[in-house]
Amino acid sequence: MNGGVWHRWAALGLLLVSSAAWSAATPAEPALLPVPPAHPQDPWEHFNRRIFGFNDVVDRYAARPVAVTYQKVTPGFIRRSISRFYDNFKDLRSGVNDLLQGELGDAGKNFSRFGLNTTLGVGGLFDVATSAGVEKRPTDFGTTLAHWGVPQGPYIMLPLLGPSTPRDAAAIVPDGYFAFNSQVRHRRTYWSLWGVYMLNYRAELLDYEGVITGDRYAFIRDYYLRNRALMAGEHNVDDDFDFSSGVDSDDDDDW
Question: What share of the chain is helix, strand, coil (3-state, %, to 5)?
């Protein structure tokens, strides 16, 4: 199949999925049903729920089935090694953002983690740094903007990318300079690395699906906003959104 035909079929498929998601996200409701009060950080909730519906359909019929298969056929120790490889670049990103925030101690820890895991950890496949007692201190450019007083802005749901805010959306490009594939010039390798990352990341989320209760949109929104506020030091709350409880860790095949 030539490139032009493939692109036309891909466009048609995306159009069909988008149409189905748009309809699924806006079910008919009785006219007298009371309207819940607007969330103070989600003034665009009606539009966000439509985007959430689109993302949910794409996930339900494309991403999730592939992730389930991947989780079943791939041993846990391999999945964790893949996660550690990608997380290693996040330590580098965190170190750079620590410098921008003036957090020199945390920057030293994150750069040390990146150095140890890249060398002794064989490119990050093994987490030597944690075994050596070097603590992970994650941060990103969105947190850097918050540190310098940039307001968060309203909650937004991005197509395919998921929950965000204007401040966090503005951080996507700067943080991308420290991504695992940022320096890869070979297009097939670039997208292969990205595809494996997204597949492995979606498979990790399978273990947390059972924690979500009630209105899925509201649960994910509230968890995201609380988590980002905590990272930015803007809010102190008890950990009532602990996703680790009740999740299998696959310790039986850990390396």
Answer: 60, 0, 35
